Amino acid sequence: MLYFGNREPSLDEVFDDPIVRLLMERDGLPPDEARACIERVRAALRERDERRSAREGFYLEREGIIR
Which of 17, 26, 40, 42 could join 1 via S-S bond, C-beta 3.0 to 4.6 A? Predict the structure, then answer.
């Protein structure tokens, strides 16, 4: 897998890498299971960030910093 500069490879690029596929196969981790796990983590992080933003917005409004 080759990538240049600071660009991170996409998940598709990572999962298409032959070495990654071999390691996942050796470890008994099916690609669809890995993707599902990543999606669950993404959703949990998104939800956490939304809650954090709501709390910060409430605080800023309460303190009169924003309206």
Answer: 17
* Number of residues written out for the chain: 67
Per the listing, tokens 């990543």 go with: 38
Give the pair of three-digit tokens for residue 9. 């490879």
Give per-residue pLDDT as tens, 7-25. Answer: 888 889 999 999 999 999 9
Helix then strand then coil, % of the chain, to nearest 5: 70, 0, 30
Residue 13 to residue 3: CA distance in whole angstroms: 10
CA-based max dimension of the chain: 57
> Is the distance from CB of 15 to CB of 31 less than 8 angstroms?
yes
